[in-house]
Amino acid sequence: MYGLSLLLTTALALGTATLTAATDTPPVQNKWAQLRLFGAPGCSADNMGEMGVYGYERNTCLDIAQYGAPDAVNISSIFDECELYLYEDAGCSVEKSIAVSTGCVDGAGPYGGLILSCSV
Questions:
Q1: 52 contact partners, CB below 8 Å, separation of at least 6
Q2: What residues contact residue 6 under an 8 Å CB cut-off, 6+ apart?
Q3: When comparing pLDDT for 97 and 42, which is higher?
Q4: Cα four-point dihedral sign 56, 58, 62, 68
Q5: What would the pLDDT profile of 79-93 be if each residue is shown by its tens digit?
Q6: Greatest alpha-carbon span in the chain
Q7: What is the pTM of this model?
Q8: What residues contact residue 96 under an 8 Å CB cut-off, 6+ apart?
Q9: Does residue 15 come out as left (phi exceeding 0), alpha (psi in the -120 to 50 range) or beta?
């Protein structure tokens, strides 16, 4: 009787630990990065608007040239397991800058594409 109870308690604890670890990764329909695009270096002039990168868009080239080829990108939030790669071209083949934390990325623009590269 006690053995069965201990076994069930252990299984429940392991299941809860696994569930907790799995929920640390945000759902794919959530924004994994929040950006603001700027048409001038410095992330203060020529605000071109906000852009969210969702979990289902991770590890995919996204064309940002359609918004007018920003010269600077301010990252207001980014999921811990991700890095943002900014490219000169919309096809994401000519790399310009890498960002792993929040803040302004400029000086290498204009940017045409980006990839939110995530390890999860």
A1: 31, 33, 34, 35
A2: none
A3: 42
A4: positive
A5: 999 999 999 999 999
A6: 71
A7: 0.75
A8: 86, 87, 88, 108, 109, 111
A9: alpha
Cα separation, 65 vs 81, in Å, equals 26
pLDDT higher for 81 or 23? 81
- Which helix (H) or strand (E) segment holds residue 113: the answer is strand 113-118
Counting every residue, how long is the chain?
120
Please report which residue ranges of 1-120 form alpha helices under DSSP H: 2-22
| Mean of pLDDT over the chain | 83
Query: Edge-to-edge, what's the strand order for the sheet holding 72-78?
Result: 47-54, 31-38, 72-78, 103-106
Percent of the chain whose predicted confidence (pLDDT) is above 70: 81
∠ CA 38-100-85, nearest 5°, is: 60
Q: 79 and 33 in contact (C-beta within 8 Å)?
A: yes
pLDDT at 108: 79
* β-pair partners for 82: 118
Domain at 31-118, CATH homologous superfamily: Crystallins (2.60.20.10)
